[in-house]
Amino acid sequence: MSVLDTETFHRWIVETARLVEANADRLTSLDAAIGDADHGINLRRGFQAAVTALAEKPAATPGAVLATVGRALISKTGGASGPLYGTGFRHASKSLGEAAEVSELQLGAALAAAVAGIRQLGAAAEGDKTMVDAWTPAVAAYQSTVDGGGALAEATRAAADAAEGGLRSTVELQARKGRASYLGPRSVGHEDPGAASTVLLLRALATVTAET
Amino acid sequence: MKKLINAPDDVLADALAGVAAAHPSLTVHLDERFITRAGGPTPGKVGLVSGGGSGHEPLHGGYVGYGMLDAACPGEVFTSPVPDQIHAATTAVDAGAGVLHIVKNYTGDVLNFQMAAELADDDGVRVESVVVNDDVAVEDSTWTAGRRGTGATVFVEKIAGAAAERGADLATVAALAREVNERSRSFGVALTPCTLPAAGKPGFELADDEMELGVGIHGEPGRSRAKLAPAKEIATTALEAIHADMPLSGDVLVMVNGMGGTPLIELYVVYKAVAEWLSGHGVTIARNLVGNYITSLEMAGCSITVCRLTPELTELWDAPVETPGLRWGR
């Protein structure tokens, strides 16, 4: 059994911020097609704020890292993605509690809690062409890998791959939530920007846990 | 991208500093990012707070003042404000009678105002929220995020503001705001897209002979694309969409609103067509606004908003107002 420490969670956020920065223009272009062209701009601001907050006041536990990130995202991101990702991190933080180290089972529970929080706040379900379409298969893939006796690194990689599959599935979907829903049938044929940023977040998790 | 800016990242901060310098009647809280009336909260009065992405000026900061808002929370351009700033504004204007949040129906705005209302509630501030959703171009169904809040926001802020100024309590002000929203519908048309300063290129592309019908106020594409038509036909399309959704009759308040890049002379051309269509359908324009009241950066185009008036709503519309964006009777 592997365990993740506070430092790994910190690196997860730094790596996510790096990926968001590198992909900010792509996220904004995806948003320009079916939204209002600011997803990359907002998320870059939010994750930069999260990294700064962690640097200014180092967190003592994995749960504290995620709580700080959640607060920073809610305070600095704006748009719908700030409250949604921020709530996801806060729910994950509550799920981890005060634990100093996190097992693959605890991480699975935290990811499930994050998705539950996001689904509840956004009132979105699978098939609505939102970040939920990337999150839901990712959490399922993580869980089935762990249930099948897979290692933590395998499970996080399976989650990131499944999120990518979920992202691809959003191309054919007509948006039913968020700003893309205003386009009706014209929202079909584009990747959902929120699902795209979810892939980055889970890819970053797979990267920092690859060595565990 | 050609814009009168210093740097894309500084647009909001620079503009807020400009608002502060231009309008002594306002206090601009530059760090916390909200605008209030200079005199502080009016004792015993319900506070009105609105906000949303920037780029819609004069909405919302330009409507802070006597007879309208107590505070406005500007987000980054086209990005909803964050809970912290809305919470700070709400606390700042609470004079003990509670605070009304006027929220345009966009997922981000609704979520951020909801989180701010919960924070204010923790502080013991009573908050009611009214969500404006007047745009008939969006199907109001469980298959969308619901209708967007557009032009009717100006009507809601003015009429609810007048009621609050007269001393109406929170429940009454909220009920009036909802009534105005329910009696109002809008439809927008874009002739050109607009460019976010931070993005550097337009949110969508339109050929020289094309227009986007049913467009919102965030540079997002609309419901459908069509060949550019004479103003008269565009006005007819908009009014037919509104009339089909909410049959028009009696006295109405009409706004022909510029999106930011359309000259006033063209708005009057549209207004002529609107006035003729309404009069031909037995509808009386009792009050009107023609100008730039809720814009979308430099987008060319206009929106048409109609509110079915009642004697009470007309009286509240006529009540004195003194803000940078709207002023009469005082």
From TrEMBL, chain B:
EC numbers on record: 2.7.1.121
PROSITE patterns referenced in this protein's UniProt entry, alphabetically: DHAK
Domain annotation DhaK: ranges: 7-328
Cellular component GO terms, alphabetical: cytosol
GO biological process: glycerol catabolic process
A Pfam family matched in the record: Dak1
Top-rank lineage group of the source organism: Bacteria
PANTHER family hit by this protein: TRIOKINASE/FMN CYCLASE, TRIOKINASE_FMN CYCLASE
NCBIfam families documented for this protein: dhaK1
Subunit structure: Homodimer. The dihydroxyacetone kinase complex is composed of a homodimer of DhaM, a homodimer of DhaK and the subunit DhaL.
Protein name (record): phosphoenolpyruvate--glycerone phosphotransferase
The species this protein was found in: Virgisporangium aliadipatigenens
